[in-house]
Design brief:
Blueprint: H1 5-18, H2 21-29, H3 50-58, H4 67-90, H5 98-111, E1 115-118, E2 123-127, E3 133-137, E4 142-143, H6 147-151, H7 156-163, H8 180-186, H9 204-207
Antiparallel strand pairs: 1-2, 2-3, 3-4
Protein name: SWIM-type domain-containing protein
GO molecular function: zinc ion binding
Organism: Cuscuta epithymum
Length: 265
Amino acid sequence: MAATVKEYHDYLSMLDSEDPRIRTWLEKLGANTWAKVMSGPKRYNIMTSNCAESMNKVNVCAREYSVSKVVDFLRERMQQWFTERKEKAEKTSTILTRKCEKRLVALQAEATRMKVKPSCAYEFEVVDRRCTSFVVNLNTRSCTCGHFQLDHFVCAHAVAAIAIRPHLSCYTYISPYYTRDAWLATWSGIMHPIADRDSWSVPASTQNQRCKPPTCMKRPPGRPKKSRIPSIGEYRGSKRQRCSRCHVLGHNKKTCRNPIPINTH
């Protein structure tokens, strides 16, 4: 998750010392998939597919359902989520979301240990505890650490610079997407419940439509595939078996033919 070009090359050099083949593999994936500095200005700090993985996990129980039952299952799940998350957002009284407020408080504590040297009303040199200097520009909302402009959230250096200007607020330099209002707007929609089928008002044009079976080919013999398709760049290599008798990879205890040294002690 390199935030600067220097960090990007430092990480690659570190990986080269472990195994030179790693660089080739990462180059095939593309630097934008793992390096923040190469990912563009609207990536924020999201570099994983954890949200999709969470959906896969909670919906795994519906994998064997029919299509209509899967639709009902997903509707009920989304109806529950929208209600719970909207209520949680409504109970939040801070400007930012709860997680982001905690993040800002931690940054403010870190910023108190930094030295700020202003050069004008909007540009500052900030020196951290390691005596490393960073340049913060509040007009461009950027810092040489890279996190300010990439995450669209103040870094500790920006917080330190803002702190010496009493008329400025950190909230001004944080993206609206981190606010409680944006959180509430995300879950403001309504997933309407569905009554029993007898009470449905179905248009005549829909009633006269015939739902034809799929035109796909016959399913091939064998057990159908249930495991999900891995994402691009995701490694799903099979785990090699290790023998519990000789501790060598590639076979198990039952098929082991390797001699075992006798412990004479």
